[in-house]
Amino acid sequence: MVIGAGVAGLASAVWMAEAGFRVTLLERRATLGGRTHSIEIPQVDDVADNGVHVMSGSMEELLRYLETIGARDLLAAESGTYARRLLPGGEVDDTSLFRTFAWLPAASISDRLRVWRGYLRMVRDCVRPPHDLDAITAREWLDRIGMPKIARDTWIDFLIIGAHNEKPDLISASAFRNLLVTMARRGRGAARNGSLLYSTVDFTSLFVTGAEKVLANHGCEVRGRAGVKSIVLRENAVSGVSLTDGEFISADAVICAVPPWAVEGLLDAVPGHEQLYSAAAKLVPAPLVSVYLYLNKSLGLETILDALVGGEGVVEQVFDRQKMVGYDGSERGLYSYEITVSAAYALNSLKSSSEIVDTCMRFLRNYYPAAQDAELVHAKVVRMPRATYSERPGTAGARPLQRTAVRGLALAGDWTATDFPSTIGGAAQSAELATRVILDQMRVG
């Protein structure tokens, strides 16, 4: 049995079914997909996604999941990622991220030397991490190693905010160091699969539709609106789950794939559940906001994505949905763009969607000359106050392993211990680790 039908739950259910087990998938909501579901926008014949679109080729477990459900070909690779910096007078300077990282074209020779000295100190701390990295923020770590502001403004802050969905002065230095180590270890996967991958379809079509077909083909049961009250044990082994409506469903094994803010109460019978609840409570939610804008003229993006630093929010990603998903609004004279703002505390705090839309339109007009006289025809705001969790100082070691003290019970989800921050890549890896735990126990049994 699998509890929760986000990416971690879907991948767990699919892989257990592929291994020959009869699976029941329980989801408290009516729809599957968790934080990666889609929302219809009938006014403009489009679909909005409840999540971000960019994935890394280093997320090999996620790619394996998509391969299993027949959706791998729905991803495309994009080689041209840009960090766009607004210059005085509104001029935009495009510089590839690799060239920015390596040479910092706008920096003086002395600044470049200081940056490379900072890089060497960063590598040193990644190889032999100081004991107090979890007690300080990424910003404080960068100060300590003497990383110049130009490197932070040009690419480091972008990496932190984009990967962690958190601000450099809030995320722990330990979490950022772990991200850098993962990037180094999984560099071959990124090179082989493409450093930047994006979906050419909506997220329901990418992550959910194929999984539903696989589960149906294996005769698995998928139940929506099935809230789980608790996991029931007998002699320190799983015997089933109790639903919120009082129904009991027996099971030989359970993979609990719910987010950290939903785990409390489910594991009351599990030895050491207090520590698990305490760990989950340390991982506070971090918001993300996506805004779908439908304009009467093109903005003229050269690639599917502009990654912009220094706008109204913290980091804005502007997606050209004509290039990305093939949106065709030609009959209505519409051009579709999505702005995704990471660590969107200020934007998410605005009361009305119209305020968010106005903010994003001002932002677009700062960066794109074509937006100056563009007319906004329609807009859709997707708020995600719990898009990810934040690994702040003091959370090192908080993410639990997938294996628990109970036979037949494993944890999954991007909040459990994986190579990644709170991402769909981490969710897929957690599913692989959780299914491995259950399969190993079943074989021994």
UniProtKB/TrEMBL annotation:
Swiss-Prot/TrEMBL keywords: Oxidoreductase
Domain of life of the source: Bacteria
InterPro entries with a match to the protein in the record: Amino_oxidase (IPR002937), FAD/NAD-bd_sf (IPR036188), Zeta_carotene_desat/Oxidored (IPR050464)
One term of GO molecular function: oxidoreductase activity
Keyword flag Transmembrane helix: no
Enzyme Commission identifier(s): 1.3.5.5
Domain (Amine oxidase): residue spans on this chain: 7-439
PANTHER family: BLR3003 PROTEIN (PTHR42923:SF47), PROTOPORPHYRINOGEN OXIDASE (PTHR42923)
The name this protein goes by in its record: 15-cis-phytoene desaturase
Protein species of origin: Mycobacteroides salmoniphilum
